[in-house]
Amino acid sequence: MSVLISLRDIRKEYLMGEGENSIVTQALRGVSFSINEGDYVAIIGQSGSGKSTLMHILGFLDSPSTGDYVFDSRNTTVYEEDELADIRSEKVGFVFQAFNLLPRTTAIDNVRLPLIYQGVPFFEQKQRAEEALKRVGLGDRMSHKPNELSGGQQQRVAIARALITNPKLILADEPTGNLDTQASHEIIELFRKLNAEGKTIILVTHEVDIARSAKRIITLRDGQVLSDVLN
Amino acid sequence: MTNKSRSLMTMLGIIIGVSAVIIIVSAGGGAQSLIYNQIQSLGTNLVGVLPGKGGDNGPPAAVLGVVITTLKYEDAVAMVTGPNAIQHLTAISAYARGQEQVSYFNKSVNVPFFGVMAQYPKVIDQKIDLGRFLNAQEEKNLSKVVVLGSKVRADLFGLEDPIGKTIRVGNEKFHVIGVFQPKGVVGFQNLDNQVFIPVSTAQKIMLGENYVGIIRGKVDSDENVDQVIADMQRTLRIRHHIKNPDDDDFTVVSANQALMTIQNITNIIKFVLAAVAAISLLVGGIGIMNVMLVSVTERTREIGLRKAIGAKPFHIRNQFLIEAAFVTTCGGMIGIVFGMLITFIIALVIRSMGYYWDLSFSITAIVVGVLVCQVIGIIFGYYPASKASKLPAIEALRYE
């Protein structure tokens, strides 16, 4: 099993306010850990623990202030926006709490969106989108629009979208936050299944029982790692 | 595009701008053809003498309605008789015009009257239907005889024979000696709805004037028009005692010159109006830019999402640019169709009034119009699109 992610002393500061009234907020104060391919990790913490910031950095939506982020053997710390966009496009699949599907668009068109940005030919887009939807159990709902799908089904569409580029990493931010218990279980089951098939998954949450579905739990508090244990 | 009716509202500026340009250019062309046709209908090989000196490129003041009293009936006579008679001039008539109540028993119409000379029908090429036209005696002798236009005859007499009957023109009694065949609208005048009396009668009895408003002459062929014009000028200078051409108190024009002058004037008007309409296109473009800025703000989350799943700044920028160009192009096409429709309706209306109206659409103008709309979309959409493309992904995702 090879190392996919290596974080070394990651720190992130924000400047809040303007001019004389500005304050420096330290969101992350030296986070270090490694994640191997095939791992299933939950990052847990209360609001203000820095877990959202950490997730943004892990997902290349933001860069650390200091520290190193080595991903797939490449030091991505100094990447510019264009290179970050490349990695997001090819290596990472996002699943958000609020699903974030395009509203007046069918499931299959939502799923193939990342492939459009990669310049993949149209037929291949359609084909791979169908496969991804079947993989998450929505083969019969491909032409439905989000308002015709339940919360759980929408999140599954989002997961299919995250899978379609065959990313190295699936990053899920409170994926069950907007779902009822039943749908939550379905989604957690799906993640388990995907991990069993070899996908590396990082789950960020503030709920302990959701975190317990993972194989390893990293707890954050006040911008630092409090504990890092196998489950 | 999120909201269909909002897109339609945005397009409104472009639609109005494009329609306006199409209507002005086509209607302008139609108007030009109408005027051209009216002047031509006076007849080719026609020369006109107007009182007052015209400017170099502009019409003489008399055309615009200013009354100048330097032209006389005797000037016209001198051009065709006597020692200074002009070669190649086959017919001539002076005109003294007015408007009067013309009545026969209980029927009455209010129409223009022309005081003209005996050769008038040959100048304008109008043909007699019943009876005869005035003769040279009547022209000079203040005779109270009248020739009716075909519509006046119908209005006053119906199917009754009018020859020899007495009608009133104003307060005077006139004998009807002839009726013209229908001729229609010539030189902006409906010749069928007028009456014709001797010029001397018109001047002395009806109008109390000793000048005429215009003199028209017919030249035997195109190639002699310039010579006739020169001869007329010479004759008038002698009669009016003018030594220096700069002191002319008249203007002699050929139908062609009049056409060219009118063409120049109407072209200028057309371009100015079209430019004004084009400005409204600009305003439409600004409207598009504003709506797009709002749209970008509203779709911030969507932009953040797209970036998160791999969209690069140019992807986002192009997405919004295409949307802007699409809106403007749609607006442009709707505007073109609408503009063509209005132009068509205008043509129908004017034609039903009996005028000639050229209806034509230039394919180049339409293609250029659509291209211009796309360019406007891209230019005015660029700033919002560029703004959208620069939104950092996280802020966009955090935006509520």
Structure explained in plain terms:
The complex is a heterodimer of chains A (231) and B (400). Chain A is 33% helix and 30% strand. Chain A is an alpha/beta fold. Chain A has a single domain, classed as Rossmann fold (3-Layer(aba) Sandwich). In chain A, a hairpin with a 6-residue loop joins strand 1 and strand 2. In chain A, helix 5 packs across helix 6 and helix 6 packs parallel to helix 7. With 400 residues, chain B is of the alpha+beta class. Chain B has 2 domains: 166 residues, no CATH class; 180 residues, no CATH class. Chain B has 12 helices and 12 strands. In chain B, a hairpin with a 2-residue loop joins strand 8 and strand 9.
- Name of the CATH first level of chain A: Alpha Beta
Categorize the overall geometry of chain B: elongated
Q: Fraction of residues of chain A in helices?
A: 25-40%
The residue ranges of chain A in which pLDDT falls below 50 over 5 or more consecutive positions are none
Return Rg of chain B in Å: 32 Å
Features:
heterodimer, A: alpha/beta, Rossmann fold, six-stranded mixed β-sheet, 33% helix, B: 400 residues, alpha+beta, 2 domains, six-stranded mixed barrel, 18% strand, elongated
